[in-house]
Design goal:
single chain; 127 residues; mainly alpha
Length: 127
Amino acid sequence: MTARNVLHYALSFLLLVLCNAAGGVIAASLRLPVPGTVIGILILLAGLGFLGRVPPPIRRTAEFLLHHLNFFYIPAGVGVMAYAALVRQDLLPIVAALLGGTAVALVAGALAFHWTAKLTGNSEEES
C-alpha cells in the first residue's frame, strides 16, 4: 500500500467521521428526535447525490469498513460482559423487547413490501 493510498483512506474516513459529527451537532442543536448518525448519513447521501457518483477512495474505504464490520461488535460484546449482572437482572424485558421489536420490524417490512408491490403493479395476488 502506497502513502498515497493511505492518505486517500485517511481522508475518506475523515469525511465519514465529519458527516457523522455534523449530524450529531445538528441533531443536538435543533433537538431533533432523530439520531445524529442518521442525519450524518443523509448529509453524506446528499453530497454523493450532488456529485452523482461515489468517488473511488470513498468506495474503497466503505468496502474496507464493511469487510471488517465484525470489529464494530467488540465494544458491544465487552459492554454486555461488563454489565452481565444487569443483563441477567433485566433479561425478561430485554428478551421481550428483542422479540417484540423483531416482530414489529417483520410486519412493517412485509406491509411495506406488499404496498410497494401494489403501487408498482408487481402484485401477484390470487383472486
